[in-house]
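User: Is it possible to get a 3D structure for a protein together with its bound compound? The compound here is MF3. I've pasted both below.
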Amino acid sequence: MMFLKTAEEIELMRKGADILTQVHKEVVTHVKPGITTAELDKIAETVIRDHNAIPSFKGYNGYPATLCTSVNEQVIHGIPSHYYLKDGDILSIDCGVYYQKHHTDAANTVPIGNISKELLNLLSQTKEALYLAIEKATTQHTIEDLGHTIEQHIKKHNYHVIKEYGGHGIGKHLHEEPHIPNYPTTQHQEKIKNGMVLAIEPIVSLGQPDIYEGSDGWTVQTKDLSPTAHYEHTIAIINNQPEILTKHL
Ligand code: MF3
Ligand code: CO
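Assistant: Yes, that's possible. Here is the predicted structure of the complex:
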C-alpha cells in the first residue's frame, strides 16, 4: 500500500528524523580504526532510547541490531560484530528510528582513517547520485526518473548500481510502496505526489554488481569482493518540492 502523509504526520517524521540525524552524528564521531561495529551499534541504540524512540531495524524480520554496518565488499545488512575497523576500510552505517508511530531511515558511508582516491571517488559520486535524485523528487517527475538519474550518474563513472535493492516509501511501516529502483524501469512511471515520504538510497559497486547473501542470512556481499557505497535520506514531498528530513550528510 502507498500512504500519503498529512502535514501532522510529516511533522512527527521531522522529529523522528532529527533523532536519526543525532544518531548518525554521534556514531560518526566514534568511527576510527580499532573500534568494533558492535560498539557503534550500542552507541546508536543508546541515543535512540535516550530520545524515547525505538530502533526500527531491531526485530524487523528478526534482524538482531540497531544498525546495519557493512564494511568494504559488504553491500548492505551487515550485522554489527566484534570486527575491528581498520585503516583503509569503508563502512556503511544504516539506521532507522521509530518515533511516535513513524519510521525514518538514513544511511551514510564513511572512510576509516585514510582511504584510497579510488574509494573516495566511489563515496563522493554515490552521494552525488543521491542528491541528484532528490532534486528530481518533485511533482513534475516520476519514480522512474529517480532511478534513471541515479543510474545515469553512476554509469558515467563506470560504477554499477546494485539492482536487487532500492529505496521505498516510509511512514507507519519501514517499507511502504512505492519501491524505488536505482535504475529506470517502465514499471515505475507513477507520478511523485505531495504527501509522499520516500527513502531514496543508491547502492553502488566499484566493480561488478553481482551479489550473494552471506551465511548469517543477512549480510549481502559482492561476488567479486568489490567495495560498495550506500547513502540514504528520508525526504517528504511538500508544495511540489522535496524536503530532506534527515540531516546527517
Ligand atoms: N535500511 C534498510 C532499508 O533501507 C532496512 C534494513 S533491513 C533490517 O530498507 F532488517 F535491517 F531492518
Ligand atoms: Co531504506
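Residues 57, 60-61, 63, 68, 77, 94, 96, 105, 175, 199, 201 surround MF3 (ligand 1) (CB under 6 Å). The chain has a mean pLDDT of 98.
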